[in-house]
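Recall the central idea of this unit: under ordinary conditions, the amino acid sequence of a chain determines the structure it adopts. In this exercise we apply that idea directly, starting from the sequence alone.
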Amino acid sequence: MAKSKNQTPAVTTCDDHEVILPPNKLTKMKPGKSEADDDRVARAEAALAEIANEFSMWMNTECERLLEARRKVMTAGLNAGTREELFRAAHDIKGDAKILGFPHAGHVAESLCRLIEHTPELSRIPLALVEQHVDAVRAIIREASLQDAEKTASKLAARLRHVTDEFLEHENRDQLEYLDSLLAPPLAPDQTM
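Accordingly, the structure predicted from this sequence is:
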């Protein structure tokens, strides 16, 4: 059986190389939504609605990990092991929070990650600032259903980010190029507070 033209790659030979264009096996779609698309979206939204009540449970579990990491830091101090555990717990919350409906908790967790990651000397990190970040994440998740919680969480996240940036600016003051990149505004618009 002979291959049709559409299934054979097109080869263009140049002096020192060849350009190979593979066949396009994609089918053409008609523009606009179909009923099947609407059904898929509706099913996906319904599935999310079914598990939405579990989101806060999942975030509470992540908060417990963060709280346990903080306990270890407060007991043993910031060392390579406790730093890694605290960073990992905060980083996981940073990644999950927006998806699970707690974007400001994610912003606070990101600020904690920045504090841990960009302070040149671990022993210089104020443990009170670590505690404030952990307490803020926990409060934002715990109080999410209260009136004005969104506004309060936004202010809290912005304030902690500001304090963290001031601290990092001071600690990295001798590394101007690094400092410029560290304090540059985020590229992704949803990362701003």
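The helical segments are 35-76, 80-97, 103-118, 127-142, 149-171, 176-183.
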